[in-house]
């Protein structure tokens, strides 16, 4: 019997623990420590909950201490792991936040995730030692945990005078929260340091669609502005950028995640952003120590190299790979790599992307070209529920291999992006895509569908 200790039991940890126990339960004792009081909160539901698009948070959890224990794990909640002795193979834990405890391991899996980035903004500080990212200034909010969303909702309910909300960071979380606050009737300002939104995921013409969508709903955009200070007498009163001052009652900071790898203690090799550097088996540079989810790197098929992409989808898949490698008798399972596939739906605008944008592809040194196409989803004779779809495919002019794709519409076009995710993973060329079998039925699409048409239109 071998003992596997898992540190962190959110999306990556839960997937990993369940997989080990389901596949090799009789061979392993699994001990889990998490510093939080809850497991498996779906952050993606935060904006829906805040914006009252769902009635409550109950459905936003899919696992619990009890469910993991039923599967056969020993689970300690509210129990931060404080250090690891890699020579003695021991983790040092504060059980229930009080009692010092040492647990030995044969294999150790880090699933310690990520923490919100706090940029150097005067007046923005986290209460020292606080594990829930509580800011010193009242109504300055970080958004990561269930507790963070609960706090925002409680404050909004208790203080109807919170009318003006600034969201800093127009990435995925910021854009989703801007919509949520606007749905509550708040006056919303969305600030980003770059001059557009969703810059990491879409080229300009696509982010412009989202910009217009936000503006059409009355959200004020303050792009290309650097936040310098957040001021207030106990409570937030002003947000000051290098260009403007906004009088606000609440500020939400959503400028990205940083991997949480302090337990590596300088002994484990790290990626350039501080993530645990892992191979395709999720192994770190120390034998018998694995890392999964937001604390670890991924292999990015679009760049053909190691990368950092913090997504719940990656957390789950890396958790499964580590489980199969750490749990079995020398089994070797390698990750297929990822493409960073992602999607967003704001009001009725749906956008999905995978792989590299044109701008990123050039930055990574590809001789990149694009082919684009805009058309209705279904034939013109379908008079209702038939919207325009815009698609852009990025490919490498030299190898012809597809590097990325972006699709936007009021239609649910989300399933189409999976085709491109697989195409990038399997190195499909733009010419092969043009001849790929794509079915036709007027209820769904056109005989000359926009994927085929975009691929056929590739000129360079
Ligand atoms: C608002 C929001 C919306 C999101 N929406 C999406 C989405 O739509 N799609 C998507 O793919 N991704 C989304 N994400 C990102 C996704 O939530 C993360 O990628 C995912 O949570 C990563 O899972 P993880 O288990 O690796 O890490 P985390 O979720 O960060 O969990 C890490 C766990 O480790 C525990 N831990 C850390 N240090 C210690 C320690 N020393 N001792 C004990 N326990 C420790 C923590 O308590 C935590 O439970 C969203 C994130 C947020 C915040
Ligand atoms: N729908 C989804 O798939 C989804 C939803 C939410 C979150 N997530 C994931 O969670 C992670 C965190 O999300 P996020 O929205 O925090 O990060 P993000 O990387 O999506 O966006 C961060 C944004 O903050 C901006 N920014 C950076 N520094 C800034 C500064 N000093 N001042 C102002 N703006 C600044 C960036 O330009 C960027 O637009 C990401 O990996 C994201 O993909 C995914």
Automatic annotation (TrEMBL):
EC number(s) stated in the UniProt entry for this protein: 1.6.3.4
Positions of the FAD/NAD(P)-binding domain: 3-319
Every Pyridine nucleotide-disulphide oxidoreductase dimerisation domain range: 345-445
Single GO MF descriptor: oxidoreductase activity
Catalytic reaction(s) noted: 2 NADH + O2 + 2 H(+) = 2 NAD(+) + 2 H2O
Necessary cofactors: FAD
Keyword field: FAD, Flavoprotein, NAD, Oxidoreductase, Redox-active center
Keyword NAD: yes
The keyword Oxidoreductase appears for this protein: yes
Superkingdom assignment: Bacteria
InterPro entries linked: FAD-bd_OxRdtase (IPR050260), FAD/NAD-bd_sf (IPR036188), FAD/NAD-binding_dom (IPR023753), FAD/NAD-linked_Rdtase_dimer_sf (IPR016156), NOXase (IPR058076), Pyr_nucl-diS_OxRdtase_dimer (IPR004099)
Family, per entry: Belongs to the class-III pyridine nucleotide-disulfide oxidoreductase family.
NCBIfam families per the UniProt record, alphabetical: NOXase_Strep
Protein name in the entry: NADH oxidase
